[in-house]
Structure formats: structure tokens, C-alpha cells
Design the sequence.
DNA sequence: TTGTAAGCGTTATCAC
DNA sequence: GTGATAACGCTTACAA
């Protein structure tokens, strides 16, 4: 691989001049610039990004920590982040935190050991304290799907409460009164907020939520299956099942049908997130859209603005969900 | 950030010694080693991976090019690759090729500009020539889901022909005779092979495939919907619909039901790939398993073995698919 | 076992 | 405008 030395020799100029035409900022006479460009071309020169990083103290890399690299939710998130950063000439190093504290810490350490200029973190188990300590260490990062008031300006979040509220509204408007709820894990803020918003919608209309019709799952399909099954077998009637995310809704739909019931004639189902497979479900799932693509893009822009000062686009940190009407929710006469 | 100089000063040893204890290969007296370790700890020293890369001419990074970062297939692939590499202390830089030649080239250029030690490529539009030229340039890479005989040892592939054959066998064993096929794009090798294997299975049993019951889609859900719909409206009867991948199967299932037919009573459906959402479909999709996780892991191991010489695990480049029986395929009396 | 010193390929600060 | 030259923070012969 040719180096800048060979280019400078061939072009008959100094290192500095070659560097100048590469970076295009300083003034170089057009004719010398051409000589350099030619030399680069004939040598098939490519600058060493490693040497550039060492000299400039900037790696142009941002670390991305997600819970899993598979899964429709993270897929959309990673895709939007990568594409936004790549347009700006930055690359991302992606790694997984596996929803475990130790693993999330290790992931951050790993990214830091790679000298990322900034991090985008989707962490579930890490404490606020740990994250605030990162901030103290002058590590620049943005949190996605996590709210810490002290650093609100670097948190990109969804209004989960509103989403839960919209879900509640939707089934009430459809005339349902006997309603079951498949909750997410209560230690997760988003799960709590979705549930709180949901309950608020019901309360406002004076509809009571039977405690026997609440099941706490873990956001995975299997727990959706199990939850719906138990709810069904408990004997408490319901005409609508609201699920705190789409995975659980998918599991629940299977359970409902395995119990011989029809969706949505016997029971309506509503999900949350609007991940891609919801359109493949039968019936197509009515759900609350989580604009994870937009949020990923915004997380990337925050980095671009704060760390690289390369964009001035306006910043938004709180996003709003919205109802997506499909066929799994049916009006109750 | 503390540097190696400060560590060496504090520990009262030379740079080289610090470097030695960091890398753990050369011999260092236990007592001096402890001094160095202590100094590192009190300074909270972290080596600069950038400087290490420059000095050692190894970035410990492997570039990964996939068509899209979202999508269940790529998700599983990326997850397995990342986890295998990470265990070995390597990181991956992931980017998207978007199934377009220009974009795939740009992706590779991008990864190369980042000085990756090796690449793992899932490319669709790039020519064999281009890939062989990469090889000539001494760029170390492995191809996933792509067979080029001249560099077979660095191609990790699935036996798609066998998969198509298994699919054909499965529906014949279930007693179907009137069979429709939703093919993948004919310019893709995997699509061609799946179809060829499928046809072979039918031919061996003397079952004819009506040309009017073949539709060429593009592996996306929408084309599955469209294909199934056209097949249905064509008036040619069939009791089983075989799809060249799961996405199209999902679309087809929606089309079949939108046309008032039942799955699997009126028509059986079989998919290919066994991506995660197939278990959420109703009825759960019978499909051919594509062991993409194992293949991703193997791709990573190939890199670990060839580029980093860090593993000696045995290498396998051809993988076999297998039938996964679920509920969408029903025996025909 | 440990130290010295020459790279690695850039950027950036000065002069000129 | 252009050229020297000193960083940047490590690794790695080669000596000692």
C-alpha cells in the first residue's frame, strides 16, 4: 500500500502539501494540487485511517450497543443509525449487551477500548449511576429508549405513556369493556409507562381493569403465549387482549387460537411497537407504532451535532407513538 | 487519558517493558510486572487501540457487508458473526449493500478505507470478476451465501438444491399433486438452485409442474402476495404453494386468506429459510431451515483461522438445510 | 530480563 | 503557497 511519502515523492512536493490536498481545507495552488492528485491516482493511494486517527485524535467511529443484533426492533434501529452515520463518513461498531448488566458493561468497555468517538446505547440493566459516571468521564454518548432527567438532552425516547393511552383509547372506542392486559416486565420503565398510560385511558372512561386479567410477561413471544393461555384458562372473560409489545401479541394470538377461539371475533388483540412482522400476522395486527427508525436517525444526528459538529439539524428527543389500525381489533357491538 | 509513557515513568521501567506486560508474550520478572500493573491501575491506563493498530499493522476489525441491517435473516447472521468475533477480541464494522451493485462496491470501499483486517461479504449484485479481483489485491475475505468455484475455500454456502429437493419431497409425501411454486428472482443463484432441486424432486416422482403455476417473485413479502393472488385468480387449481423464501410465504398466506381460502385446508403453504417470524404465522409455517447462525459463525471462524491464526477449529463450507414440520402443510388424502 | 531507539502514516505548527 | 519537523502512542528489533 502506497503511503503519503511515496505520493509526495512522486508529485515532487512535501508531505504537508499532500496532506493539504487530501483534506481540502488549506489553500493549495491548482497546478500542484493536480500533480498530487495524479500521483495519488497512479499509486492507487489510500490514506491510512489508522494513522489519521492517531494524528488527529478522532477515529470517526461511533460505538453502538444494542441488546441483540437480531430482532426486528433492533434491526430497524441499527439500520437507521448506520445509514445516517455512514452518510457523514462515520462508521459504527456494533455490539450486543444481551440485556444483562455485566454484559452491557462489558459491551461499553469493549467499545471504549476501540476508541470510539461517541456511543449510542440501548441498555436495559445498567443503572443511572453508571451512565451518569460515564458522563463525568467526558465520554460522549446518547441513550436511546431510556430517560435520565439529569442528562435529558442526550436521551432519545418515546412517549410510552401516550402509547399506552392510545392503546386504551382504541379498545374503548371499539366498545370493549372486558379487557385483559399482557404487561411487560415491571422493572422496565417503558413497560411501566405503557401500562400506566393504558390504565389512565380506562380510568378516564370509568372502565375497571380486573386484576385477574393482568399478566406480567417479559416482552418475549413465549411469555405472550403463556400469559394468554393462563388468562384464558382462568375463566375470567375478556373480549380484548392488549399486549405491551408485538412479540407477546404474536405469542398470545397463537395461544388464543390453540384454545379454539377466533381472532378478532372472540377476542381482539392489540400490540405495541409495530415491528415489521406484524403485517404478516393473521389477522394483521393492530398496534401502536414506535418510530424507532426516526429515533435511531435522531440519535445519530445528536452525535453528528455534538461530537462531530458536522450538522446543525434541529434536535428532537421525545417522540410520539401512534395507533396503526389493522384487523386484529374488532368493534364490539 | 494516560499513555504508556506515564505508566513507564510511574513504574520506573521502560516503554518496552510496559508493552511487554500488556501483551503478555515476552518474559518479564514477576515483581516488575506487578509494578507495571499497579501503575496501570492507579493511572486507569487504557492502551490506545489506534496506536497499537498503527504500530502492529493490525486493526483487529473485520468488515461485514450485508444487504440490509434489518430483516430476520441478516439479523441472525450478524448476531452470530459478531458474537464469535467478539469472543476473539475482534470487532466488526457493519454496513449495508442494499442489493445494488454500486452500493455494494461503495460498501466494500468504505470498509477497506477503514483498514479492516478482513471482510465478510453477503453480496448479491457484485460480479465474480470483481470479487476475484479483490482476491488478487490480497484482501482477505469470506463470502457468505455465494459460491465462486475458484475461491471455494472462502465461500460459506448452503446446499440450496438440496433444500429445494427437500421441499419437493415434503409436499409429495403429503400427497399433493397440484402444486404451485413461488420462485425467487431467476438471476439469483440461490433462487435458481432451490427451484432446480424442487423440480428434480417432482420429476423423480413423475409429477409435472404446470408452468402456469409458477410465479417469479423477488423474495419480498409484497411479491409473495401478488404472486399468490395471480396464481389464485388464474383459475389453475392447486392444493399446495411452495415458496422460495419465508417472506414471500407470509405474503402468500395473506393473499390466500384475502381470497377466502383456508390454510392449510384449501391450500398448504411451505416456506424456505426458517426465519424467526415463521413461528408467529398462522398456521405456523412449515419451512426449510437455513442454518444461517451456524454459517455466520463459520464465516467468522474462517477469518479467525486464516487472517488471525487464532483458532484451529475445523472448517466446513457447505451447509445442509432441513425440513421443519409445522402446521401450514397438510396431508392431502 | 530490561532498555534504547527506530519505525508505523498521518496531522499540525511553525517558518519561509 | 509550501516545506520542515515535531507530535500522536504504540510495537519490535537489537543491544545490553
Sequence:
Amino acid at each position: 500500500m502506497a503511503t503519503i511519502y511515496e505520493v509526495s515523492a512522486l508529485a515532487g512536493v512535501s508531505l504537508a502539501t499532500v496532506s493539504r490536498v487530501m483534506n481540502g481545507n488549506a489553500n493549495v495552488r491548482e497546478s500542484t494540487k493536480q500533480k498530487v492528485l495524479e500521483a495519488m491516482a497512479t499509486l492507487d493511494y489510500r490514506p491510512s485511517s489508522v494513522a489519521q486517527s492517531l494524528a488527529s485524535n478522532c477515529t470517526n467511529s461511533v460505538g453502538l450497543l444494542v441488546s441483540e443484533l437480531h430482532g426486528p426492533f433492533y434491526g430497524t434501529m441499527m439500520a437507521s443509525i448506520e445509514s445516517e452515520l455512514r452518510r457523514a463518513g462515520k462508521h459504527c461498531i456494533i455490539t450486543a449487551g444481551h440485556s444483562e448488566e455485566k454484559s452491557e458493561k462489558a459491551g461499553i468497555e469493549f467499545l471504549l477500548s476501540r476508541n470510539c468517538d461517541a456511543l449510542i446505547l440501548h441498555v436495559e440493566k445498567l443503572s443511572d449511576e453508571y451512565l451518569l459516571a460515564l458522563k463525568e468521564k467526558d465520554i460522549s454518548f446518547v441513550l436511546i429508549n431510556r430517560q435520565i432527567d439529569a442528562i435529558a438532552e442526550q436521551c432519545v425516547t418515546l412517549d410510552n405513556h401516550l402509547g399506552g393511552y392510545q392503546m386504551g383509547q382504541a379498545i374503548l372506542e371499539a366498545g370493549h369493556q372486558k379487557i385483559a392486559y399482557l404487561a411487560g416486565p415491571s422493572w422496565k420503565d417503558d413497560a411501566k409507562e405503557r401500562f400506566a398510560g393504558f390504565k389512565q385511558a380506562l380510568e378516564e372512561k370509568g372502565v375497571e381493569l380486573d386484576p385477574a386479567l393482568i399478566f406480567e410477561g417479559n416482552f418475549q413471544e413465549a411469555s405472550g403465549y403463556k400469559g394468554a393461555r393462563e388468562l384464558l384458562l382462568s375463566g375470567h372473560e375478556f373480549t380484548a387482549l392488549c399486549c405491551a409489545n408485538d412479540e407477546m401479541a404474536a405469542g398470545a394470538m397463537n395461544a388464543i387460537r390453540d384454545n379454539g377461539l377466533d381472532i378478532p371475533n372472540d377476542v381482539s388483540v392489540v400490540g405495541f411497537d409495530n415491528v415489521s412482522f406484524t403485517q404478516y400476522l393473521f389477522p394483521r395486527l393492530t398496534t401502536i407504532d414506535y418510530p424507532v427508525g426516526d429515533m435511531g436517525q435522531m440519535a445519530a444526528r445528536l452525535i453528528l451535532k455534538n461530537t462531530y459538529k458536522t450538522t446543525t439539524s434541529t434536535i428532537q428527543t421525545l417522540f410520539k407513538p401512534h395507533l396503526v389500525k389493522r384487523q386484529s381489533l374488532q368493534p364490539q357491538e
Notes: The longest strand of chain B covers residues 61-66. Chain B touches chain A through 46 residues (CB under 8 Å). Chain B is about 45% helix and 15% strand. The radius of gyration of chain B is 26 Å.
